[in-house]
Amino acid sequence: MLRSPLRHLWFALNVLAISLAVAAILIGPDGAGQAPAITPAYFIVPAVFIQIAAAILAEHLRQRIEVPFAGIAAAVRAVAKDDFSVRAPLGGGPEIAAIARQFNVLADTLIAQRKSLEEHQLRLRSMLRVIQQVIYSADSDGLRVYFISPAAQGIFGHPPSDFYANPLLWASAVVEEDRWRYLIRSTHLAERGTYDSQYRIRLSDGEIRWLLDQAWLVRDDKGNPVRVDGIITDVTERWRMEQALRAAQAGNRSIAESVPLPLAVLSRVDSRVMQVNEAFCRAIGGSSEKIVGRTALTFYDDPSVHDRLVQALQSGNGRAELEVTLKRSDGAVLRTQACARAAEYNGVPAVFVGYAELATRTRDGRAGGNDLE
Protein backbone atom coordinates (compact mmCIF):
# COMPACT_ATOMS: atom_id res chain seq x y z
CA MET A 1 0.00 0.00 0.00
CA LEU A 2 2.89 2.43 0.87
CA ARG A 3 5.40 0.82 -1.44
CA SER A 4 4.78 3.26 -4.30
CA PRO A 5 5.26 6.47 -2.21
CA LEU A 6 8.47 5.05 -0.72
CA ARG A 7 9.79 4.32 -4.15
CA HIS A 8 8.97 7.86 -5.21
CA LEU A 9 10.91 9.24 -2.22
CA TRP A 10 13.84 6.93 -2.91
CA PHE A 11 13.83 7.99 -6.57
CA ALA A 12 13.73 11.73 -5.69
CA LEU A 13 16.66 11.50 -3.27
CA ASN A 14 18.72 9.52 -5.74
CA VAL A 15 17.99 12.07 -8.48
CA LEU A 16 19.23 14.79 -6.12
CA ALA A 17 22.41 12.83 -5.36
CA ILE A 18 23.06 12.12 -9.03
CA SER A 19 22.51 15.80 -9.87
CA LEU A 20 25.10 16.79 -7.30
CA ALA A 21 27.57 14.24 -8.69
CA VAL A 22 27.06 15.51 -12.26
CA ALA A 23 27.60 19.05 -11.06
CA ALA A 24 30.86 17.96 -9.49
CA ILE A 25 32.02 16.49 -12.77
CA LEU A 26 31.11 19.58 -14.74
CA ILE A 27 32.95 21.86 -12.37
CA GLY A 28 36.60 21.27 -13.13
CA PRO A 29 39.80 23.39 -13.44
CA ASP A 30 39.37 26.52 -15.50
CA GLY A 31 41.35 27.16 -18.66
CA ALA A 32 44.17 28.73 -16.73
CA GLY A 33 44.59 25.59 -14.65
CA GLN A 34 43.42 27.36 -11.56
CA ALA A 35 41.23 25.37 -9.15
CA PRO A 36 37.75 26.79 -8.94
CA ALA A 37 36.44 28.22 -5.74
CA ILE A 38 33.97 25.32 -5.51
CA THR A 39 35.53 21.86 -5.92
CA PRO A 40 33.71 18.59 -6.92
CA ALA A 41 34.07 17.37 -3.35
CA TYR A 42 31.48 19.94 -2.35
CA PHE A 43 28.94 17.92 -4.40
CA ILE A 44 30.19 14.32 -4.19
CA VAL A 45 30.30 14.08 -0.41
CA PRO A 46 26.74 15.42 0.07
CA ALA A 47 25.54 13.13 -2.69
CA VAL A 48 26.92 10.08 -0.89
CA PHE A 49 25.43 11.15 2.41
CA ILE A 50 22.04 11.83 0.75
CA GLN A 51 22.01 8.31 -0.74
CA ILE A 52 22.86 6.77 2.62
CA ALA A 53 20.18 8.87 4.33
CA ALA A 54 17.65 7.92 1.68
CA ALA A 55 18.38 4.22 2.20
CA ILE A 56 18.08 4.52 5.99
CA LEU A 57 14.87 6.56 5.73
CA ALA A 58 13.30 4.14 3.26
CA GLU A 59 14.07 1.12 5.47
CA HIS A 60 12.81 2.93 8.56
CA LEU A 61 9.54 3.83 6.87
CA ARG A 62 9.19 0.30 5.52
CA GLN A 63 9.60 -1.21 8.99
CA ARG A 64 7.36 1.38 10.63
CA ILE A 65 4.58 1.58 8.05
CA GLU A 66 4.73 -0.88 5.17
CA VAL A 67 5.54 -4.06 7.13
CA PRO A 68 2.88 -3.50 9.85
CA PHE A 69 0.20 -2.69 7.27
CA ALA A 70 1.20 -5.78 5.29
CA GLY A 71 0.71 -7.85 8.46
CA ILE A 72 -2.71 -6.33 9.04
CA ALA A 73 -3.66 -6.99 5.41
CA ALA A 74 -2.54 -10.64 5.74
CA ALA A 75 -4.64 -11.04 8.91
CA VAL A 76 -7.69 -9.56 7.16
CA ARG A 77 -7.29 -12.00 4.27
CA ALA A 78 -6.98 -14.91 6.71
CA VAL A 79 -10.16 -13.92 8.57
CA ALA A 80 -11.97 -13.56 5.25
CA LYS A 81 -11.10 -17.24 4.67
CA ASP A 82 -12.47 -18.21 8.13
CA ASP A 83 -9.01 -18.58 9.65
CA PHE A 84 -9.33 -16.82 13.00
CA SER A 85 -6.01 -18.09 14.33
CA VAL A 86 -4.05 -15.26 12.65
CA ARG A 87 -3.54 -11.98 14.50
CA ALA A 88 -2.29 -8.63 13.23
CA PRO A 89 1.24 -7.70 14.45
CA LEU A 90 1.43 -4.78 16.88
CA GLY A 91 4.55 -3.20 15.32
CA GLY A 92 4.85 0.21 13.70
CA GLY A 93 3.86 3.55 15.08
CA PRO A 94 1.28 4.06 17.83
CA GLU A 95 -1.52 4.74 15.33
CA ILE A 96 -0.82 1.60 13.31
CA ALA A 97 -0.45 -0.48 16.49
CA ALA A 98 -3.84 0.84 17.67
CA ILE A 99 -5.42 -0.25 14.37
CA ALA A 100 -3.87 -3.72 14.72
CA ARG A 101 -5.01 -3.97 18.34
CA GLN A 102 -8.61 -3.06 17.41
CA PHE A 103 -8.56 -5.62 14.62
CA ASN A 104 -7.42 -8.34 17.02
CA VAL A 105 -10.18 -7.39 19.46
CA LEU A 106 -12.70 -7.63 16.62
CA ALA A 107 -11.33 -11.05 15.62
CA ASP A 108 -11.63 -12.29 19.22
CA THR A 109 -15.22 -11.01 19.34
CA LEU A 110 -16.06 -12.80 16.10
CA ILE A 111 -14.58 -16.03 17.48
CA ALA A 112 -16.69 -15.74 20.64
CA GLN A 113 -19.85 -15.00 18.63
CA ARG A 114 -19.20 -17.89 16.27
CA LYS A 115 -18.63 -20.26 19.19
CA SER A 116 -21.85 -19.08 20.83
CA LEU A 117 -23.75 -19.52 17.55
CA GLU A 118 -22.37 -23.03 17.10
CA GLU A 119 -23.40 -23.93 20.65
CA HIS A 120 -26.92 -22.58 20.04
CA GLN A 121 -27.14 -24.53 16.77
CA LEU A 122 -25.98 -27.68 18.54
CA ARG A 123 -28.60 -27.25 21.27
CA LEU A 124 -31.27 -26.55 18.62
CA ARG A 125 -30.35 -29.69 16.67
CA SER A 126 -30.44 -31.72 19.89
CA MET A 127 -33.89 -30.34 20.72
CA LEU A 128 -35.19 -31.01 17.22
CA ARG A 129 -33.99 -34.60 17.40
CA VAL A 130 -36.16 -35.30 20.47
CA ILE A 131 -39.22 -33.25 19.47
CA GLN A 132 -41.81 -35.61 18.03
CA GLN A 133 -43.54 -32.97 15.92
CA VAL A 134 -42.29 -32.10 12.45
CA ILE A 135 -41.16 -28.48 12.25
CA TYR A 136 -40.90 -27.19 8.71
CA SER A 137 -40.35 -24.08 6.61
CA ALA A 138 -41.18 -23.93 2.89
CA ASP A 139 -41.96 -21.41 0.18
CA SER A 140 -45.54 -20.20 -0.08
CA ASP A 141 -46.20 -22.43 -3.14
CA GLY A 142 -44.91 -25.57 -1.46
CA LEU A 143 -42.45 -26.16 -4.32
CA ARG A 144 -39.34 -25.77 -2.17
CA VAL A 145 -38.61 -26.98 1.35
CA TYR A 146 -36.21 -24.74 3.26
CA PHE A 147 -36.14 -26.81 6.45
CA ILE A 148 -37.80 -29.90 7.86
CA SER A 149 -36.88 -31.44 11.21
CA PRO A 150 -35.60 -35.00 11.76
CA ALA A 151 -39.01 -36.07 13.11
CA ALA A 152 -40.10 -36.41 9.46
CA GLN A 153 -38.42 -39.82 9.44
CA GLY A 154 -40.66 -41.09 12.22
CA ILE A 155 -43.92 -39.60 10.93
CA PHE A 156 -43.62 -39.84 7.13
CA GLY A 157 -41.11 -42.67 6.94
CA HIS A 158 -38.73 -40.49 4.90
CA PRO A 159 -35.60 -38.61 6.02
CA PRO A 160 -35.46 -34.80 5.59
CA SER A 161 -33.16 -35.19 2.59
CA ASP A 162 -35.99 -36.82 0.61
CA PHE A 163 -38.18 -33.73 1.06
CA TYR A 164 -35.38 -31.38 0.03
CA ALA A 165 -34.88 -33.42 -3.14
CA ASN A 166 -38.61 -33.83 -3.85
CA PRO A 167 -40.89 -31.24 -2.16
CA LEU A 168 -43.98 -32.91 -3.75
CA LEU A 169 -43.32 -36.08 -1.73
CA TRP A 170 -45.37 -34.59 1.08
CA ALA A 171 -48.50 -34.04 -1.02
CA SER A 172 -48.19 -37.45 -2.66
CA ALA A 173 -48.32 -39.13 0.78
CA VAL A 174 -51.76 -37.63 1.57
CA VAL A 175 -54.56 -40.14 0.92
CA GLU A 176 -56.67 -39.24 -2.09
CA GLU A 177 -59.88 -38.67 -0.10
CA ASP A 178 -58.13 -36.05 2.08
CA ARG A 179 -55.95 -34.43 -0.56
CA TRP A 180 -58.34 -31.51 -0.93
CA ARG A 181 -57.73 -30.66 2.72
CA TYR A 182 -54.03 -30.34 1.97
CA LEU A 183 -54.50 -28.46 -1.30
CA ILE A 184 -56.67 -25.71 0.23
CA ARG A 185 -53.84 -24.71 2.56
CA SER A 186 -52.55 -22.19 -0.02
CA THR A 187 -55.97 -20.53 -0.19
CA HIS A 188 -56.35 -20.41 3.59
CA LEU A 189 -52.85 -19.02 4.05
CA ALA A 190 -53.42 -16.30 1.43
CA GLU A 191 -56.81 -15.29 2.88
CA ARG A 192 -56.31 -15.81 6.61
CA GLY A 193 -52.55 -16.06 7.09
CA THR A 194 -52.98 -19.35 8.98
CA TYR A 195 -53.88 -22.95 8.21
CA ASP A 196 -55.09 -25.59 10.65
CA SER A 197 -56.38 -28.91 9.37
CA GLN A 198 -56.22 -32.66 9.83
CA TYR A 199 -55.64 -35.15 7.04
CA ARG A 200 -54.43 -38.70 6.59
CA ILE A 201 -51.24 -39.94 5.00
CA ARG A 202 -50.38 -43.40 3.74
CA LEU A 203 -46.92 -44.74 4.50
CA SER A 204 -44.98 -46.93 2.09
CA ASP A 205 -46.07 -50.04 4.03
CA GLY A 206 -49.75 -49.06 3.73
CA GLU A 207 -50.18 -47.78 7.31
CA ILE A 208 -52.57 -44.83 7.66
CA ARG A 209 -51.76 -41.97 10.00
CA TRP A 210 -53.72 -38.90 11.01
CA LEU A 211 -51.78 -35.62 11.00
CA LEU A 212 -52.57 -32.18 12.41
CA ASP A 213 -50.99 -29.53 10.18
CA GLN A 214 -50.73 -26.02 11.68
CA ALA A 215 -49.03 -23.37 9.54
CA TRP A 216 -48.75 -19.60 9.25
CA LEU A 217 -47.67 -17.30 6.42
CA VAL A 218 -44.58 -15.15 6.93
CA ARG A 219 -44.48 -11.83 5.04
CA ASP A 220 -41.74 -9.25 4.49
CA ASP A 221 -41.91 -5.55 5.42
CA LYS A 222 -43.87 -4.81 2.23
CA GLY A 223 -46.46 -7.50 2.91
CA ASN A 224 -45.21 -9.92 0.27
CA PRO A 225 -45.32 -13.67 1.10
CA VAL A 226 -41.86 -14.94 2.00
CA ARG A 227 -42.37 -18.46 3.31
CA VAL A 228 -44.67 -20.77 5.26
CA ASP A 229 -43.65 -22.05 8.70
CA GLY A 230 -45.52 -24.82 10.43
CA ILE A 231 -45.74 -27.76 12.80
CA ILE A 232 -47.11 -31.22 12.02
CA THR A 233 -48.28 -33.46 14.84
CA ASP A 234 -49.10 -37.15 14.55
CA VAL A 235 -52.59 -37.36 16.10
CA THR A 236 -53.27 -40.97 15.16
CA GLU A 237 -53.43 -42.10 18.79
CA ARG A 238 -55.66 -39.16 19.65
CA TRP A 239 -57.99 -40.05 16.77
CA ARG A 240 -58.15 -43.67 17.94
CA MET A 241 -58.90 -42.45 21.45
CA GLU A 242 -61.71 -40.28 20.13
CA GLN A 243 -63.19 -43.29 18.33
CA ALA A 244 -62.88 -45.41 21.43
CA LEU A 245 -64.45 -42.73 23.64
CA ARG A 246 -67.38 -42.43 21.25
CA ALA A 247 -67.80 -46.20 21.35
CA ALA A 248 -67.68 -46.24 25.14
CA GLN A 249 -70.05 -43.29 25.32
CA ALA A 250 -72.48 -45.09 23.04
CA GLY A 251 -72.33 -48.11 25.31
CA ASN A 252 -70.60 -50.30 22.72
CA ARG A 253 -68.42 -52.30 25.09
CA SER A 254 -67.16 -54.68 22.41
CA ILE A 255 -65.62 -51.82 20.40
CA ALA A 256 -64.16 -50.25 23.54
CA GLU A 257 -62.53 -53.55 24.50
CA SER A 258 -61.05 -53.97 21.01
CA VAL A 259 -59.22 -50.64 21.23
CA PRO A 260 -55.57 -51.07 22.39
CA LEU A 261 -55.66 -47.75 24.27
CA PRO A 262 -56.47 -47.61 28.00
CA LEU A 263 -60.02 -46.32 28.59
CA ALA A 264 -61.80 -45.48 31.82
CA VAL A 265 -65.20 -44.04 32.74
CA LEU A 266 -65.06 -41.97 35.93
CA SER A 267 -67.80 -40.34 37.96
CA ARG A 268 -67.60 -36.57 37.77
CA VAL A 269 -69.00 -36.37 41.29
CA ASP A 270 -66.56 -38.47 43.33
CA SER A 271 -64.05 -39.74 40.69
CA ARG A 272 -65.09 -43.38 41.23
CA VAL A 273 -64.28 -45.78 38.42
CA MET A 274 -67.42 -46.96 36.63
CA GLN A 275 -65.90 -48.89 33.74
CA VAL A 276 -62.45 -49.75 32.30
CA ASN A 277 -61.32 -51.79 29.33
CA GLU A 278 -58.71 -54.53 29.31
CA ALA A 279 -55.99 -52.17 27.98
CA PHE A 280 -56.42 -49.96 31.08
CA CYS A 281 -56.09 -52.99 33.36
CA ARG A 282 -52.85 -54.00 31.66
CA ALA A 283 -51.51 -50.42 31.82
CA ILE A 284 -51.76 -50.10 35.61
CA GLY A 285 -51.43 -53.80 36.48
CA GLY A 286 -54.78 -54.74 37.99
CA SER A 287 -58.03 -56.51 37.16
CA SER A 288 -61.30 -54.73 36.38
CA GLU A 289 -62.85 -56.31 39.50
CA LYS A 290 -60.26 -54.55 41.66
CA ILE A 291 -60.41 -51.26 39.76
CA VAL A 292 -64.15 -50.62 39.28
CA GLY A 293 -65.60 -48.92 42.34
CA ARG A 294 -62.29 -47.43 43.47
CA THR A 295 -61.57 -43.71 43.18
CA ALA A 296 -59.20 -42.26 40.62
CA LEU A 297 -56.79 -41.47 43.47
CA THR A 298 -55.93 -45.16 43.41
CA PHE A 299 -53.99 -44.82 40.18
CA TYR A 300 -53.46 -41.06 39.73
CA ASP A 301 -49.98 -39.94 40.82
CA ASP A 302 -51.29 -36.42 41.54
CA PRO A 303 -54.43 -36.28 43.71
CA SER A 304 -55.56 -33.02 42.06
CA VAL A 305 -55.66 -34.47 38.53
CA HIS A 306 -59.35 -35.42 38.55
CA ASP A 307 -60.47 -31.98 39.74
CA ARG A 308 -58.27 -30.30 37.13
CA LEU A 309 -59.70 -32.61 34.48
CA VAL A 310 -63.27 -31.70 35.42
CA GLN A 311 -62.42 -28.00 35.40
CA ALA A 312 -60.83 -28.37 31.95
CA LEU A 313 -63.99 -30.07 30.71
CA GLN A 314 -66.12 -27.20 31.98
CA SER A 315 -63.98 -24.60 30.23
CA GLY A 316 -63.46 -26.72 27.09
CA ASN A 317 -67.12 -27.35 26.16
CA GLY A 318 -67.09 -30.93 27.39
CA ARG A 319 -63.71 -31.91 25.92
CA ALA A 320 -60.22 -31.65 27.42
CA GLU A 321 -56.66 -32.87 27.13
CA LEU A 322 -54.27 -33.10 30.04
CA GLU A 323 -50.98 -34.80 30.81
CA VAL A 324 -51.64 -37.39 33.51
CA THR A 325 -49.24 -39.69 35.36
CA LEU A 326 -50.67 -43.11 36.31
CA LYS A 327 -49.34 -45.27 39.15
CA ARG A 328 -48.69 -48.90 38.27
CA SER A 329 -48.96 -51.76 40.73
CA ASP A 330 -45.25 -52.59 40.25
CA GLY A 331 -44.20 -49.14 41.51
CA ALA A 332 -43.45 -47.62 38.11
CA VAL A 333 -45.27 -44.58 36.82
CA LEU A 334 -46.79 -44.19 33.36
CA ARG A 335 -46.79 -40.71 31.83
CA THR A 336 -49.79 -40.33 29.51
CA GLN A 337 -51.74 -37.77 27.52
CA ALA A 338 -55.34 -38.01 28.68
CA CYS A 339 -58.16 -37.16 26.27
CA ALA A 340 -61.49 -36.69 28.06
CA ARG A 341 -65.15 -36.21 27.16
CA ALA A 342 -67.99 -35.25 29.47
CA ALA A 343 -71.14 -37.37 29.15
CA GLU A 344 -73.57 -39.45 31.19
CA TYR A 345 -73.06 -43.11 31.98
CA ASN A 346 -76.10 -45.01 33.19
CA GLY A 347 -77.68 -41.68 34.07
CA VAL A 348 -74.67 -40.50 36.14
CA PRO A 349 -72.52 -37.49 35.11
CA ALA A 350 -69.28 -39.07 33.99
CA VAL A 351 -65.92 -38.47 32.35
CA PHE A 352 -64.86 -40.76 29.51
CA VAL A 353 -61.04 -40.76 29.49
CA GLY A 354 -58.54 -42.31 27.06
CA TYR A 355 -54.84 -42.46 27.92
CA ALA A 356 -52.09 -42.34 25.29
CA GLU A 357 -48.77 -43.53 26.72
CA LEU A 358 -45.90 -41.05 26.58
CA ALA A 359 -43.27 -42.76 28.76
CA THR A 360 -42.82 -45.31 31.54
CA ARG A 361 -40.25 -44.83 34.28
CA THR A 362 -39.42 -46.14 37.73
CA ARG A 363 -40.28 -44.04 40.73
CA ASP A 364 -36.63 -43.42 41.73
CA GLY A 365 -37.15 -44.21 45.36
CA ARG A 366 -40.44 -42.42 45.83
CA ALA A 367 -43.50 -43.98 47.50
CA GLY A 368 -44.81 -47.31 46.14
CA GLY A 369 -47.38 -47.87 43.40
CA ASN A 370 -51.12 -48.43 43.63
CA ASP A 371 -52.68 -51.01 45.95
CA LEU A 372 -54.43 -53.14 43.34
CA GLU A 373 -52.22 -56.22 43.76
Walk me through this protein's architecture.
This protein has 373 residues and is α+β, with helices and mostly antiparallel strands. It folds into three domains: 3-117, no CATH class; 132-234, 2-Layer Sandwich (Beta-Lactamase), CATH 3.30.450; 238-361, 2-Layer Sandwich (Beta-Lactamase). 46% of the residues lie in helices and 23% in strands. It has helices spanning 3-26, 41-80, 94-130, 152-156, 160-165, 169-173, 179-183, 185-192, 236-249, 253-258, 278-284, 288-291, 305-315; strands spanning 134-138, 145-148, 194-202, 208-219, 225-234, 263-267, 273-276, 319-327, 333-345, 348-361. The strands form two sheets. The protein has a five-stranded antiparallel sheet, sandwiched between helices. Strand 4 (208-219) and strand 5 form a beta hairpin. Helix 1 (3-26) runs antiparallel to helix 2 (41-80) and helix 2 packs parallel to helix 3 (94-130). The longest helix is centred in the first third of the chain and has 40 residues, at 41-80. It is elongated, with a radius of gyration of 42 Å. The chain starts with a helix and ends in a 12-residue tail after the last strand. The model is unreliable at 360-369 (pLDDT under 50).
